[in-house]
Amino acid sequence: MEVKSTNQIVAAMDSDYDRKAEIKAFDETKTGVRGLVDSGIKKVPRMFHSGIDITENIATDSKLSVPLIDLQNIHTNPALRKEAVTKIRSACQEWGFFQVINHGIPIPVMDEMIDGIKRFHEQDPEVRKQFYSRDLKHKFLYYSNTSLYKDKFANWRDTVGCSMAPNPPTPEELPEVFREIITEYSKEAMTLGCTIFELLSEALGLNPSYLKDLNCAEGLFIQGHYYPPCPEPELTLGTTTHTDTAFITILLQDQLGGLQILHDNQWLNVLPVDRGLVVNVGDVMQLITNDKFSSVYHRVLANRGGPRVSVAAFFSNNSHDLEKGITKVYGPIKELLSKENPPIYRNTSIGEIMAHHFAKGLDGNHALNPFRL
């Protein structure tokens, strides 16, 4: 009688496993990860297994934390503004991330935005299904995992998203459960984004309006992420290691935590700050600053508690460009270049960067690699 080795048994199991079929069946439910949880599952389906040890390379220095920057009175007090600019410059160079407080977005607006995203994902599945789509041409999108069919493993999260500037959807194109708040929050996020771009411009030694004049604040895409409770959080991730394909991202997160950034080759928790917002440098900002500012890897852990809810405001004009067929070209800012600091990147369009981002999926590789000279 032939006795099979453990490796042979595992290989046989692997050969019997039809990943494509599992992904297709999951996608066709149109209810996402929330639908799996509602069905009462006790185990994480194999398509979500990451094979990653999330306990590796965790930062052990308890004093290490993402810089916190107070924006109180920066429009009226030159000394406070200068201090904020100095801190932002350091944060963008050394961390790629920082948190802001006294940023001007009212607390009730932030709370209601989180609640609105939660309401959408927890409403009747039959209502949610009506919005489920992977067609990026739609004004409003509801889906689970942007590159579900390309990624090595699926993330434990569902997402809604829509472009809110420069051409926002009509009220009728938005779900009723958060129609009013997403419009209000987007206006607040745009105002804050413009302030951040002014401070970033000054941090680069440029005129305060420089980045806005480059249309960095023209486009705003809002994504609402919903991370349901996970029965086996050690087996998967809420969001795979990635960088953001944008100029900057402003993130509103609830108090549950789970966001981590890769700093000095160690994973560091970005702990929620009461009434604070997370700001991070995106790939296109790294490109135009010629690596002066860093777009760093980050991820989100799955968790047993929750659900965790976050709202990401991406500043990038790509959706507008792609709709219009416009290829707006960006390259390293000439004022930052010299013989000692030659351009690192070739000129390219955001559309090209985005196309590469979608084609490669969440594979852990930096989206800027193909655009280096």
UniProtKB/TrEMBL annotation:
PANTHER family in alphabetical order = OXIDASE, PUTATIVE-RELATED, OXIDOREDUCTASE, 2OG-FE II OXYGENASE FAMILY PROTEIN
- Give the taxonomic lineage as stored in the record: Eukaryota, Viridiplantae, Streptophyta, Embryophyta, Tracheophyta
Q: Which SUPFAM superfamilies match?
A: Clavaminate synthase-like
Species of origin: Vigna angularis var. angularis
What is its cofactor? Fe cation
**Keywords recorded for this protein, A-Z:** Iron, Metal-binding, Oxidoreductase
The segment(s) forming the Fe2OG dioxygenase domain are 216-318
Q: Which Pfam families match?
A: 2OG-FeII_Oxy (PF03171), DIOX_N (PF14226)
Task: Name it.
Answer: Fe2OG dioxygenase domain-containing protein
Note the superkingdom of the native organism.
Eukaryota
